[in-house]
Amino acid sequence: IQEPQLQGQDTGMQCEDDRTGIGVETLKRAFLDNLFYVQGKFPALATKHDYYMALAYTVRDRLLQRWVNTAAIYTQEGSRTVAYLSAEFLMGPHLGNNLINLGIYNQVQQAMTELKLDLKELLAKEEEPGLGNGGLGRLAACYLDSLASLEIPTLGYGIRYEFGIFDQLIRNGWQVEKTDKWLRYGNPWEIARPEWAVSVKFGGRTEAHKNAQGRYRVRWIPHKVVLGIPYDTPILGYKVNTANTLRLWKAEAPESFDFEAFNRGNYYGAVDQKVTSENLTKVLYPNDETYEGKQLRLEQQYFFVSCALQDMLRIMLRQKLPLEQFHEKFAVQLNDTHPAIAVAELMRLLLDEHEMDWEPAWEITQKTFGYTNHTLLPEALEKWSLKLFSSLLPRHLEIIYEINWRFLEQVRHKFGTDEGRIGRLSLIDENDGKFVRMAHLACVGSHKINGVAALHSELLQKTTLLDFYEFFPEKFTNITNGVTPRRWIVLSNPKLTNLITSCIGDNWIKHLEDVQRIETYAEDPGFQQEWQQIKRENKVNVAEILLDRTGVKVDPDSLFDIQVKRIHQYKRQHLNILHAITLYNQIKQNPNLDITPRTLIFAGKAAPGYYIAKLIIKLINSVAEVVNKDRDIGDRLKVVFLPDYNVKNSQPIYPAADLSEQISTAGKEASGTGNMKFAMNGALTIGTLDGANIEIRNAVGAENFFLFGLTTEDVGALRLTGYRPREYYEQNPQLKQAIDQIASGYFSHGDRSLFKPLVDLLLDKDPFMLMADYQPYIDCQQQVSQTYRDRDRWLQMSILNTARMGKFSSDRAIREYCQQIWKVQPVPVQLAAEKTGDG
Ligand code: TH1
Predict the structure, then answer these.
(1) Mutation test of ligand 1: which of 288, 335, 478, 480 has the most ligand atoms closer than 8 Å to its C-beta?
(2) Which residues form a coiled coil (predicted)?
(3) Which of 152, 444, 548, 658 has the smallest C-beta neighbourhood within 10 Å, fewest atoms?
């Protein structure tokens, strides 16, 4: 797909450096060399995995030169740097992405073919680092790609979970979780940096002491100390020499043995400390958008934040920068409130460890941080009980009290003593029990607060953070999410990439706005024909995957109607399944019905403790079982649940979709990013006026988007006037039939108790208003079916969707962060060879 660049062509005659050359012969030689010297194998003994590793090291060698150069230039220039703090980074497999960004995909493919190997098979061998739950973690990964591609000095800081998000199996229709042993066969993309380990304290108490100048300072005497070891992964930009760093921290015991215990003969006891310390970074909490007040989670958050800030201070000292310039050297972004303890930790480091006074320390802190809010759902808003907080972070609680006291003084100064307002703004929630409110800490400690789509940012200011908006409106802004076209178009959909590039060149990969130029072809029959052919081939590919993983055979000529995302009530996978049941009933009632054949594809994980979400998975599989084996239905309707949705498994999905399901209750989905990946790949969206759907519809044109459902205002008004879901059920025969079938055991071998909790919830409470949105959704789906029958119209709509998605590149989003929040400039990196002109 990509032509070689940055380096000269390999003529096969001149001798390229085995570690940097990108000619086919050099790549083959380097690959075999790595097979021998890294894996200790020769071809006759090598497994597929050995070949994958040899290729990964071959690619890594080509990254390292850029990585080392980048670090040298950043150090030499003392560049202003973005530090992106996130408890989750859902990077996906590295190999394919690095091949694309290096621009060597085609050469490597050829080299492998010449060695009688299949690059696709080797790519499939990579275990992806699933260090995130869903959209929030994947957004962080897209942003790292764009930051590197835009040549912005960046450090991503996070946690090196030993076990990432669980692997999902489906057994008897239920989700079963399996631990994700991603490090089992080694990770060729990371380099441990034990020389930059830091200590992190926990628990204990504080005391006052006099410093050398005779002034009182606070000292923290911890109960335990844990070591943080950084593991670095290079993040290469697209066709640039910039390779930034993702620095993930692993917890270790400061001493692997407790020698006192050892000498007492308690060998097993001696290893205890090692075990408990290492538990800290053992596993990712698999909850998307619901927090559990678990001690270990707060420990994880504080651990990686403290490691990150200490690391930044080390970098400043090494570059001989005074600490007063911390906010000039680093722009630190808080990816939701998970790293919000950073506000108190930076204060502690400046005050206690570097003896700065409160006022300058606070000014530096506020100028350093930006806070991104990703959700309005109340169950996701983190608050920690004072009991837990004070036992774990006693010094931070003192600092938070001081921040709060000073902040509330300012509030009083501005608004007078309005106790209601003060209670609502306080960093401490005293409503029932006492809690530290992390979003409040993040707001007060940051100079900018952003939501992730226009509607979400508006709602933040009008509802969840209204009091903060009234107090400092200038801090608030919106930056609509984006996704990287490198992974989500070029890597995932090579055929579409080639078609677009053959028409308009490849500039669009770096400047997605340019993809607009394919609009002139939207009605060109030849182009439409190729467009359709590519979609069909992508659907055939997914049909093969579905057959392989689920045993269900689907028709690639049917309409591929896809909903892939975490399973959540607010995302309403169960509304989609009500549509499936409705279609099923329509065919059963009229076996000769000429309907548009559809394949409904679902995928996504449920949090292991989220009972209703797991029941929704069971319902999807139960409906699938009945529908798929019903001979009356035939190829007109299929329902499939693809297990173990992750980045790797998602890549073939987006390019194969005709219809993208974005059907959350209005006001609940902050942005969504899957909606963008689908539309860029030419899927049409059926969706509500929620999150980024609104902006996607504005961009692609209302006539190219299937809109239905309540608006955010409707939802609020209906709630206020008294929402009675059962009335919709009683008054709508189709809906009643579908619900009654679920309740009667039609899909559960006569078991009436299985889905009762779900049915009762829908009829009595229906917190996400499926009953109200049911008929508008069904009607809109009918429109979809009609439109699909007009092939030319559909193709034109599909092409226009891709053409008009330029805004949703993460490059645009990152440019906005750079200008509005981080005030940071690109720092281009040249390779030494380029500088001397002998490359
Ligand atoms: C998601 C939002 O639900 C989604 O709408 C948005 O596109 C995405 O973030 C990126 O901005 C969130 N994921 C999480 C995960 C946790 C807590 C809150 C959110 S919001 C653990």
Answers:
(1) 288
(2) none
(3) 548
The domain of 630 spans: 485-808
Ligand 1 atom at minimum distance from 672 CA: 7
Q: Cα separations (Å) of 780 from 344, 407, 599, 600, 750?
A: 50, 50, 17, 16, 32
| 372 lies in some domain | yes
DSSP state letters, 255-288:
SSS-HHHHHTT-HHHHHHHHHHHHHTTTB----S
- Structurally, the chain folds into a number of domains equal to 2
**Do both 455 and 579 map to the same domain?**
no
710 falls within a domain: yes
pTM: 0.97
Looking at 115-193, list the stretches that DSSP marks H as alpha helix, in order from N- to C-terminal side: 119-124, 135-149
> How far is the centre of ligand 1, averaged over its atoms, from the C-alpha of 660 (Å)?
19
B/e letters for 539-567, b = 16+ CB within 10 Å, e = fewer, are bebbbeebeebbebebbbebbbbbbbbbb
Q: Residue 107 domain-assigned?
A: no
Local structure of residue 2 (DSSP, 8 states): P
Rounded distance between C-alpha atoms, residue 32 and residue 114, angstroms: 12
Residues 210 and 265 in one domain: yes
Q: Using alpha carbons, select from 152, 147, 56, 49 the residue that is nearest to residue 96.
A: 56
Residue that is last in its domain, among 450, 481, 512: 481
> 571 an active-site residue?
yes
Task: Single out the residue of 490, 651, 489 nearest to residue 102, CA to CA.
Answer: 490
Statement to judge: residues 466 and 545 lie in one domain: no
Residue 781 lies in a domain: yes
Query: Which of 442, 461, 481 is the last residue before a domain boundary?
Result: 481
Distance of CA 818 to the CA centre of its chain: 20
Q: Say whether both 363 and 498 belong to one domain.
A: no
470 with 498, same domain: the answer is no
CATH of the domain at 660: 3.40.50.2000
Regarding whether 359 and 211 lie in a shared domain, the answer is yes
Q: Tokens for 463?
A: 């509802």
**Tens digit of each residue's pLDDT (9 = 90 or more) over 195-249:** 999 999 999 999 999 998 999 999 999 999 999 999 999 999 999 999 999 999 9
Relative to the CA of 669, which ligand 1 atom is closest? 5
Q: pLDDT (tens digit, 9 = 90+) per residue, 526-570?
A: 999 999 999 999 999 999 999 999 999 999 999 999 999 999 999
Task: With beta carbons less than 8 A apart as the criterion, state whether 233 and 248 touch.
Answer: yes
Identify the residues whose C-beta falls under 6 Å from ligand 1.
133-136, 139, 287-289, 336, 374-375, 380, 452, 481, 669-673, 691
159 shares a domain with 253 = yes
**For 8, which DSSP code?**
P
Instruction: Report the 10 Å Cβ neighbour count for 408.
Output: 18
In the chain, the amino acid numbered 782 is: Q
**369-372/637-641 β-pairing:** unpaired
Going by C-alpha positions, the residue among 35, 171, 41 that lies closest to residue 111 is 35
Catalytic residue among 565, 572, 598, 636: 565
Q: Is 475 left (phi over 0), alpha (psi -120 to 50) or beta?
A: alpha
> What's the complex ipTM?
0.99
Q: Whose CA is nearest to atom 17 of ligand 1?
A: 289
Q: Are residues 499 and 523 in the same domain?
A: yes
CA of 505 to the centre of ligand 1 (A): 35
